[in-house]
């Protein structure tokens, strides 16, 4: 993609306003927190102190709208602590521009590295930089620093207290994540009715697993509806695929295929009912027609072989899903010895070593997060110096705009830059027009500021341009509370926001890290994860008495994470203004299809793992050893743009055929696995011949 096309696409994305479900109760609660802080401080103190504390309340409220599985009060308290520390340090260094620039550079570097922990941590750290920049215009005594830092912390504490006193749909995010996973399984079942090879998006299952990670305190209070259906959803996917697949399931046409279609349709209905029950904490309501289909028929078409086993497994799993969900959601307190097992989420104190490991892992020049940290710290420092040198006043607006805009990847940075400038212009103009017409006093300005904050909270999911417009008007009214007229701030705000956005975009252009050049590494990681998953499944078929279900499960999770990392990298690469380096779009699509097929075939073999009492299969073990020998060299070949060699697995498969024939799920799955590996080799074969073969296979 050329630079002109990339800029056009990012500008269009930045100006897009999406229609998303609104959460008025949450927005009202957070806006009330800001109103409470401003109102109390206006009554007992000065407008300047009210404005200072309003920053803490606003930032804490904004952080609680981010998608995080941590309890909302914990997020608000974390933001309050970070804002208090950054405010105090900013006050201490504000007496000298050079000292402050040094502090700003170091603090922004650390804030940029916070993206290594996660997007919510990165956003919170960005908020602390913004508040530090604001404090340079306020008194610099040590006592004043403590005073203002405490007020900002109070703003966050108020938001946390409101969340505790007025809970709105507790466990709502976790409920939505689990319901989305079950709804995705229902949609998958519907698509399998018409297309037995329909793809499945693993993102909902990944989100559901992340939502299921709990601290011990959360585990004691989790509603029972959230305890078991996630594991059932995980086990349902391979069963559905195995039932619909014409190779290891029912024939492609005939009475058995009609029976499979009926089962898949009824499964979708049941899963949708379970998803609705979990989402809203209500009992499951099942239509009797669907339940009739999910019983073993006394007459009519009957399934045989592997399809019959898959159907029985499907009925059992659906029964478990209904049984574990069919009750109103409520807290369940058990004695520690009776607590169910759950995915462990570290408590806040135990997060320290996790954070340190993440920072150490990303503290390198080749890391997107590490490069982002250096880039944002340099841009913030330059922006502060330029903003201070310009005769516009409020010079901190330029670096603040840069910091709020910049992200570790190209598309988000440029999209947010356009949205920030356009939204700021709109918000400042609206705020200035209202100020010019109403000539509001201190309390009217405070009320209008709270209204802008409430609209920002309410519309936070519609697009960054809308949020920027609300923030722009919010700043106009906040400054109006301390006596600054709108005419003094409009031009400066617009000009400095434009300067900050341009600096952010220039910073990424000068210090980029393109995802396009890393695509082969991501592809190699996906191939490696696919291979480990296949080896774990084949090992169970080879030695059923020694089956290690945990190894299979961990390999599946690694494979799923590698696939998502590849898909996200490929999506970001599409938006980058660089020519392809190492892999063409045609080869990329063909390789994606081959590895997706490899993962699906392995999943089908996992759906038919033998019991511990089953006979071992030496041929499956021999095939697994051949694949294990060929895999490391193939992964290296993908990175180094060499031809892939799968002769060892192909030879082992031929010997398997000669020894045991072509009956059985394992041998059929291994045939499809080798076919997928050959497709991958053709897609990545160097030279025009390989690309042409990939194009033909992709067509």
TrEMBL record:
Tagged with keyword Membrane: yes
Q: Which InterPro entries match?
A: Memb_transporter_dom, YccS_N
User: Per UniProt, what is the membrane topology?
Assistant: Multi-pass membrane protein
What are the residue boundaries of the Integral membrane protein YccS N-terminal domain, all occurrences included?
A: 84-189
Q: Where is this protein chiefly located?
A: membrane
Tell me the domain of life.
Bacteria
Q: Which residues cross the membrane?
A: 34-62, 74-92, 98-117, 149-168, 373-397, 417-437, 465-482, 494-514
Localization per Swiss-Prot or TrEMBL? Membrane
- Give the record's keywords alphabetically: Membrane, Transmembrane, Transmembrane helix
Pfam families assigned: FUSC-like, FUSC_2
Name recorded for this polypeptide: FUSC family protein
Species per Swiss-Prot/TrEMBL record: Streptomyces orinoci
